[in-house]
Amino acid sequence: MTIIRVITMVFIVGFLSLAFMPTVVHAEQQDRPNAVNVKDFFSNTVYNELKISPTGEYYLINSDAGDRDRLVVIDRATNKPISSFEVGENKRISEVYWVTDERFIFQARTRVGLYDDREGFPNLYAANADGRLRKEIFTWDVAGFELLSLLPNDPDHILIARYFWRDKGQPKSHIINIHTGKIRYIADQPDNSQQLFADNEGNLRLGYAYEESSDDEFGQGSSNLYFKPYGGDSWERLTIDSFVPGDTLRFAGFSDDNRYTYIFSDMDSNVQEVYKFDTKTRAIEQLTHDSNSDVNSVVKGLDGNVVGFEFVPDTFTREYIESSKATKLLQSISKAFGGQRVTITSATKDQKQAVIYTRSDVNPGEFYLFDTETLEAKFIAARLENLKSSQMANMQPIRFNARDGVELNGYLTMPKKKSDAPAPLIVKVHGGPHGVRDYWGFNTENQYFAANGFAVLQINFRGSGGYGKEFLESGYGEWGRKMQDDVTDATHWAIENGYADEGKICIYGASYGGYSSLMGVIREPDLYQCAVGYVGVYSLPLMYEDGDIPESDSGVKYLREVIGENESELRANSPVYQADNIKVPVFLVHGSEDVRVPMSHFEQLTQAFDKHGINYKTLVREEGHGFQKEENKFELYPRLVQFFNKHLN
């Protein structure tokens, strides 16, 4: 049996202020009192991401600096920062990779607001560990890009797919020099493909084409799969007999020998399962069966190759490809950390050292340096260092049937309390809404509310993602209707099962969740005692006129599918036009710079409230689609607690 030793002392990089360079102190983790300090929960996260360099000489840290991200490189020999920089206001950094021993690449894009899920297009950057020779090596303008491979056998270049608008978005493969930014076209892709995928060595091996005409229903176009056979150089087309319009397909990775490719698809299934495609024999084998949710992600080993797959039907489960060394190592580490979710963020070239990331419903995330030879895990840093796992509230998965028999999944976070009496309940509705869902794991909002004595109920109502296309599409056209009924049924479930006290329930949500909160108190005027709408949609007709969704043909097509075009029905399911039915106090929170749900929604609703004499409070700050700046979060959450306390206690 493998034994993992966990050592809780190595170093912590502490930022006195994210406006300055970080300082370093040596310290052991200390127990902290269970005081409800908003800063402990919502301060900028220094350690969003942490990766070790190929030689093990550096740590590369991606930090949250409020309305932007910042990269910091730590010299491990001295435990001191040698470079620190950011790209600009509202620029969020992702896809950070070491390409050589001294040089790394990253993407940065504009995101205005915490819940902005339609971020601006990314640009591609490269920099040296010491911060020198920083360069934007690809700018998204007449063409976009997607990173295909770091080209492990060519340290000076990376492989990208370049998407030209004049070619209707068809990708063309190019090689970029990470030092100069010089780009070179590689004529190696199938005709009409819209997605390319490379194997572990950086060779283009897969292509996918989806075509949807103006006459096709939303998401009901035709698909084609292209591949290069194992050991071959010519592209071939594969027709999958069981693949029908509306089915989805995602490439997930290759086997170590590059013969097999793994595919996520819902062909022959209501949820996305994992398939293995033999590029030599053309055989397709289904690896997972009868799953209760879509496959969520791949699990990677020390070399970055696929070793398994993760599902999140309620908590998380993993299916490993085979009993390899990497598989046994991950299973042993997870066991050593009490069954927490463990991922390998990065490893040295010799695979002797790796950074592992652990998290759970009560652990916001911790980074450890793992020695693969001695099997020792040394603590590096915690994402929220002032929060102690033992003082956090567990997130309990729930499952029940809605009024029409549809099975619904969700989560209940109960505060730690001495009394058996039901706690005041916050019904928290997720945004999106289509394709988005609530997950098991650490939720900062939930923990802050629980620390203040509130229970939090979350429900993956129909239309949410993760539970198959039928469940997803069953929410189309059901805004304010069956989707809202599901939230209502979840609330009644909590009451009937003794988790909530009738008369002490408030409904809260952001974006679509803000819409649902207002529709909840409109449709169920006696069920909730208050409502909070955070950057919410309040007028369905206005969605066709304002914001960034109707700016594209695909956006308009999406709106027609999910909310419809009948003006009278849109008004009947809009808080702005039904405001006179509200009987409880309302708190509205909005960002003046929100481009997803512009201020026009907030303004129309407050005008309706004034007309009908509705009791409401507001908080508007210079933010986008959700608050990101520390000072605004520090103001928002105590005010939310104050509002809930006033109307629930």
Task: Output mean pLDDT.
Answer: 90
Shape: globular
State the CATH architecture of the domain at 393-648. Answer: 3-Layer(aba) Sandwich
Examine the coordinates and then state which fold CATH places here, giving the name of the CATH topology of the domain at 393-648.
Rossmann fold
The assigned structural class equals alpha+beta
The helical percent reads 10-25%
**Which strand order does the major sheet show?**
31-32-34-33-35-36-37-38
Description:
- There is one protein chain.
- The protein is α+β, with helices and mostly antiparallel strands.
- Among the domains are: 1-126 and 348-388, no CATH class; 393-648, Alpha/Beta hydrolase fold, catalytic domain (Rossmann fold).
- Helix content is 16%, strand content 34%.
- It has ten helices and 38 strands.
- It has an eight-stranded mixed beta sheet, sandwiched between helices. Strands 1-30-29-28-27 form a five-stranded mixed beta sheet, covered by helices on one side. The chain has a four-stranded antiparallel beta sheet with strand order 4-5-6-7, with no helix packed on it.
- The longest helix is centred in the C-terminal third of the chain and has 19 residues, at 630-648.
- It is globular, with a radius of gyration of 25 Å.
- Residues 440-649 form the Peptidase S9 prolyl oligopeptidase catalytic domain.
- It comes from Idiomarina loihiensis (strain ATCC BAA-735 / DSM 15497 / L2-TR).
